[in-house]
Specification:
Helices cover 72% and strands 2% of the residues. It has 231 residues and is an all-alpha fold. Strands 1-2 form a two-stranded antiparallel ribbon. The longest helix has 33 residues.
């Protein structure tokens, strides 16, 4: 934790001349970008896996017609097809899972006063403290106060990104193999996936602002990455 805190502090020191009191917030955004850049090769591999799964859709359609009255055999046949073609249905999850440690480090760092010796807890993004939450802003100056306005800006950014991701997910829903696994639970999950983009709004509202910055930056990076890799 001390090594992680030291890294963020060093980045903040480098960015101080440009961002002044918001240097630590800028350091978190830069740190997030560096994490995503390191994970980009895995994201490219996940994109190749997604394209490979999309190429299997005609064969999965045939299996669905063949086993339309036997969901268990359909699921088994689809999984065997993936194994035969060496395509993992879960390959796209790895980049997201590997981001979790960085998110939880930021969450812990700005939630525990003793985590960094108070070296970062006094920093802000404009008027909002990085260790504060939206509830703190509401209890202070209210929704349209100085701190509340910071959160309104973040919510606006997240809403735009979520709407963009929602439309892309709905567009590709007909070709996803989630619905091809069965007509029951997996199909329901597949239909719910586009709406999960908006869950980021809840995350930003309840976690410390520092962790929210990580989430917003990472979400924006993911949206841009998908445009680049899934053309």
């Amino acid at each position: 934790m001390s090594v992680f805190a030291g890294l963020v502090e060093r980045l903040a020191d480098l960015l101080q001349p440009l961002f002044h009191a918001s240097a630590a917030a800028a350091a978190i955004v830069l740190f997030t970008a560096l994490v995503r850049l390191l994970l980009h090769p895995l994201s490219r591999a996940a994109a190749r896996g997604q394209k490979a799964r999309s190429a299997l859709q005609p064969r999965i359609g045939e299996l669905r017609r063949k086993y339309r009255k036997d969901p268990e055999k359909l699921q088994k046949a689809v999984l065997e097809l993936h194994a035969e073609e060496k395509v993992s249905p879960l390959s796209g999850c790895l980049p997201s899972l590997l981001q979790m440690p960085a998110f939880f480090l930021l969450y812990h760092l700005f939630s525990t006063p003793a985590a960094d010796g108070d070296g970062l807890l006094g920093h802000r993004l404009l008027a909002a403290p990085l260790d504060g939450r939206w509830a703190d802003a509401l209890a202070g100056d209210g929704v349209f106060g100085a701190a509340g306005a910071v959160y309104l800006g973040l919510f606006a950014v997240v809403a735009v990104i979520a709407a963009f991701n929602f439309l892309r997910a709905r567009k590709s829903l007909d070709t996803t193999d989630m619905a091809g696994l069965s007509g029951g639970a997996a199909g329901a999950v597949g239909k719910a996936v586009p709406y999960m983009s908006f869950f980021t709004l809840v995350t930003v509202a309840v976690v410390p602002l520092a962790a929210a910055l990580y989430v917003v930056t990472s979400t924006a990076w993911s949206a841009a990455e998908r445009v680049l890799l899934y053309r």
